[in-house]
Every structure is written in structure tokens, then in C-alpha cells.
Amino acid sequence: MSYYKRKRFYATIFATIIALFFVVPAIWIILTAFKTDAEALRGGVNFWPDHFTFKNFMYLFSSENYEVAVFRWLGNSLFVSVVGTVLVIIIDTMAAFALARLNVPFKKIILGLILISMLIPNVITLLPQFLNFANAGLLNTYGVMILPVTSSTFGVFLLYQFLKKFPVEIEESAVLDGASTWKIFLHIVVPNSKPMIVTLGIITFIGLYNDFLWPLITINQNSMKTITVGVANMMTGSLSISYGRLMALSLLSSIPMIIVFIISQKQIVKSITHTGIK
Amino acid sequence: MANVSLFNPAKRITNTTKIAKKTRSKGQLASFLFILPFLLGFTLFCIIPIVYGIIISLFQWNLLDKGHIFLGLENYKQLFISGSYVNGVFFSTLKNTALYAVISVPLFTICSLVLAILVNNVSKRFTGIFRAIFFFPYVLSLSVVGAAWALIFNPGAGFLNALLNAIGIDSIQWNATPAGAWTMIIVTSLWWGVGFNMILFINALNNVSEELYEAANVDGASAWFKFKDITLPSIQPIMLYVVIMSTIGAFNLYGQPLLLTAGGPGTSTKVTMMSILDEAFIRHQLGSASAMAIVLGGIIGIFILLQYLFIKRKEG
Fold first, then answer.
1. What ipTM does the predicted assembly reach?
2. In terms of domains, do A131 and A269 share one?
3. What architecture does CATH give domain B88-315?
4. Which stretch of A29-33, A222-226, A236-240, B187-191 has the lowest confidence by average pLDDT?
5. For the ABC transmembrane type-1 domain, which residue ranges apply (chain A) (predicted)?
6. Ramachandran assignment for B274, one of left (phi > 0), alpha (psi -120 to 50 degrees), beta (any other)
7. Are A101 and A159 in contact (CB under 8 A)?
8. Which residue in chain B is spatially nearest to A170 when comparing CA positions?
9. Nearest-5° Cα angle at A78, A92 to A143
10. How big is chain A by its Cα radius of gyration, in Å?
11. d(CA B250, CA B103)
12. Are residues A243 and A193 in the same domain?
């Protein structure tokens, strides 16, 4: 073996060992979901279930249990993530277009406020935001889970910077052809910003689906919980955790993200590099 | 917005004016409509809460009462008077949070860099697989990650103690000692987030100029020399970015201790976010909780500012 081949060989061996650290917990979740509680709590290296049981899943799916509403929770999570993401994409793309291209009044002040707001960490808005929604009677609604994300400046900034670097010539000629602002936006700006819009969509979707703290403090009504809150509640709520059920619920809750990951892994990776290097 | 300079400024102005003229014919209203939805959300869910938060922090504000008593800066004073209840809670948890930051930030940065280098050096056909394996926990939710590792670290049923027993080491009661509890939190956080930073590092490593390495090869440089004198300086900006982002993340730590240790044993893994939420939702003192949030926000804000200045500098 040449030096380079040998180097790659050892790196591959080393990477395989480290990969176990990442893969084993995931396999452990999956297999525990199919174990009885007695077996899940038995201890020892009993990786493979003695006999696969679907009892944990049957419990979660059963209409007689009032604690867990797994389909409702999954539905809530997907609804909030999809609606929130679409909303953010529309709002942010329009705002970025206006700021980068149109004659918006007080543009300098708006841009300044956006930049300042990016310096302010979430912990500062957390409690007053909660109080506002509580006073408006909007706790335990989809509104409380979706609306705050419309104030995110990340997408506006990302798209604004992209459009600022993007040549104006095409839009200019469209203007000369008599295209309306709306048409320019829809037929030129949106298609050309696609990579950034996809980035914004992916980051927002993952963020909303996996959002933890905000739904945890604003949602306590069972039927309105997201699946993330459901898993967290099952963990911290009862005195004795049934690990079989907990892992079954975790597995179900991860299915949408696993599908997203498998379909768009390359796109997610690209999106992360977009966010890192602005 | 230093990057505007990439564009010919004079040309940009004429272009903007042409489009602006077009819109002006329909009045500024049309262009204002494009930004209105954002301004609405931004005002309602960002600006108003910030101002409201500052106001609340100046009151004795009970979550369950309607009457609020104006205190001025008393909540902040209490926070910094040693011996007061909030002072004790806030700074002991801040100390825990800082401890986590001091351990996790260098650890996560080094681990993600090592993984990035490793992924770049494995046999080419496995690159994609290893990248995916090291990265996938990032798309899982904190709840799921917490649940998985709670089971793995479970003293009786957990996989980790089973492994330790198999090689002749006694079971460890992970959540019985501060060191064990922090180990749980750090390992869980590492598993969850290291892939994200790894992606940033892989991208940075792939952008290092090949010519530098070729020149070093001609000179017969050692691998260590190439790493120290070419790779590290080239990826330094991303490294700084990762360090700052990890620091911000560390001060926001909440879910992992909540799910894995509940702040225990005692209060040894209780972090600042937990003390703020306890103050607000268990003691119902929104005023002092807001003051604590603003002070913590100030600390995090310093790091965000550093990151912002550094991005600015990079853009020139």
C-alpha cells in the first residue's frame, strides 16, 4: 500500500470506531422501542430484543389512553413547522426584496433595527413574549407557536445580502419592458433567490419542528402539544418512565426529520455552510 | 453591508432609481406593502417584547397578581447584593453555566475539527457516509436526544454501565455526582451538536488553497507542519466563528440538564436559564426573572457582538 492509501485506510478504521458512538445510541432507541419494559430495564448488554413486541406502539396508538395523542402531536408539529416555514419564506423574501431594491420609507432605520435586533439574544424576549401571548389569551394555540417566528431577521438578512450582490440588470430590463413590481418579484427575484430561499426554509423547518423551550412553556393542553413537548413531558412528567414507550414515541417523533434528512441531506449541509459564511 | 462595494456603487444607484421610479409611479405604498408583513411581525414579536421586558424588570411583578409595584432598579440591585436570594440563585447557576462553557467550547471545537479532518481523509467512497453518520443527530429534537441518552446513562438499565461491567468496571451512578451529571450533559450535547460544526469545518478545510499544500510537499514538509502552518491559519476565521457560536449555545443551555439531571445532584448542574424560568414560573416573580434574563442576555450579547464584529472584519 502506498503512503496515501495507508493513511486513508487507517483514517477509515478510526472513523468507523467513532461512528459507533453516533450509531449505537440510534440503534438502541429503535430496538428498545420493541422491548417489553421488563426487558428494557433488565440491564446488561442485551441489544437485540428477546422477542419483538409492538405493545409500546399499540399503547401509544390506543384511543383509550388519554396521556398520549401521538398522531395529534405529530400533526401539530407538522402543521406548525410547515405553516411557519411558508410564512417566514413569504414574509422574509418580500421584505428583503423591498429593502434591497425598492424605495422603502425609513429604509436606513429599518435596516439599523434589524442589525441591532440580531445582537439581542432570545432570552431577553422570552418572558415578555410569554406574558403578551398569555394576556392575549393565545396560550395553547397554533398562533403562539407560529407567530413569533415571523419576527426572525435571519432570513431577511440572508436574502438581503444575496440580492445586494445579485446583478440588477435583468430586473432593470424587465422594468423597461413594463413589468410590474409584483411581476418582477415573482418571476425574476424569487426564482433567482431559490438557493437562499431553500436554505431559509430548511433552517426554519428544522428549528420549528425541534423547537423545545417555547412550546414547552406556552403549551400545556394535551391536544395542542407538539411531539417534541410530548416526548419531553413523558420523560419528566411521570415518576416511573416506561423506556419502551418513551423510545417508541421518540422513534415516531423522529420519523419526519429522518425522512427530511434522507431526502435532503446534501441541501441541509449546503444550507449550514450558507449560514456560517455570510 | 460592506459587501455592497462588490458592486459598482454608481451603477447601483441608477439601477435602484430606475426600479424605484417605476414603483413611485404607483406610490411608495406599493413598496411599503412588500415590507409591511415583516414590520408587523418584527414590531409585535421582537421590538415590543424587548421594551416590555425592560419595563417588567423595573417592577415587582407577580405572575398571578394584577397589581405591580414600581421598584426602579431594585431588581438589578438585589441581583448584585451578595447574600440576597436572587443573587445566590443567579450567580451559583451562572457559575455552573460558565463551567459548562469552559469545558464544552474547547472540547466541541476540537472534536468537530477532528471529525472534519477525519471525514476528509477516509477512503473517498466513504466520505459521504461518515459525514452523514456524524451529522444526523443534529436533525433530531432535543427531547429525543435527551430521552436516548437518559436511557444509555441509566445506572441500572443503561447501555454504558453494561459496557463498563463487560470490561470489568463497576457501574457508575451517573447522576449521583456532579462530575457524572456533567458528563451526561456534555456527552449528550456533543453527540447532538458536533456534526453541525463539523460541516462548517469541512467546508473551511476544502477551501484551503491546494497550492499551499503542494508548495509544502515540494519542500518536504511534515504532516504536522502542514497542519500547523497552513491548515490552522487558513481555517482560523471559521474556528473563531465556531468558538463564539458554541459559547452563545453554552450560555443558552437548558434542555439537556432539564431532561437528564433536573439540575442535580443538588443544584450542581442547575444552569442560569433554569433559575430564570424557576423565578418566573415557580416563584411567579416576573420582575426579578426579567432582570436576570436581561443580565444573562447582556452576557450573551457580548459574544454575539464579538461574532458580528468578526464577520464584519472578514467582509472587509
1. 0.92
2. yes
3. Orthogonal Bundle (1.10)
4. A236-240
5. 74-264
6. alpha
7. no
8. B15
9. 60
10. 24
11. 10
12. yes
Domain with A269, as residue range(s), is 70-276
For chain A, the maximum distance between any two Cα atoms, rounded to a whole number of angstroms, is 75
In terms of Cβ atoms closer than 10 Å to its own Cβ (0-12, 13-18, 19+), residue A1 is exposed
| Residue among A8, A243, A265 whose CB faces B132 most closely | A265
Which chain B residues touch A156 with a CB distance below 8 Å? 38
Interchain contact B296–A (C-beta under 8 A): yes
Average pLDDT, chain A: 90
Q: Could you say which of A61, A82, A109 is where a domain stops?
A: A61
CATH 1.10.3720.10 placement within chain B: 88-315
Tell me what percent of chain A is helix, strand and coil, each rounded to the nearest 5: 75, 0, 25
Q: Determine the residue among A42, A151, A242 to mutate to test chain B binding: the one whose Cβ has the most chain B Cβ atoms within 10 Å.
A: A151
Q: Report chain A residues whose CB lies below 8 A from the CB of B139.
A: 206, 210, 257-258, 260-261, 268
Give chain B's length. 316
Any residues with CB less than 8 A from the CB of B242 and at least 6 apart, and which? B108, B109, B112, B197, B200, B201
Beta bridge partners, B62, equal B285
Q: Which residues of B219-250 are buried (b: 16+ CB within 10 A; e: fewer)?
A: eebeeeebeeebbeebbebbbbbbbbbbbbbb
Chain B interface mutation, best of A115, A127, A129, A234, highest count of B Cβ atoms under 10 Å: A127
Phi, psi at B283, each rounded to 5°: -90, -10
Q: How far apart are CA B36 and CA B33, in angstroms?
A: 5
What domain count does chain A have?
2
pLDDT tens digit sequence for A36-86: 988 888 877 777 888 899 999 998 898 777 778 899 999 999 999 999 999
Whether residues A155 and A24 fall in one domain: no
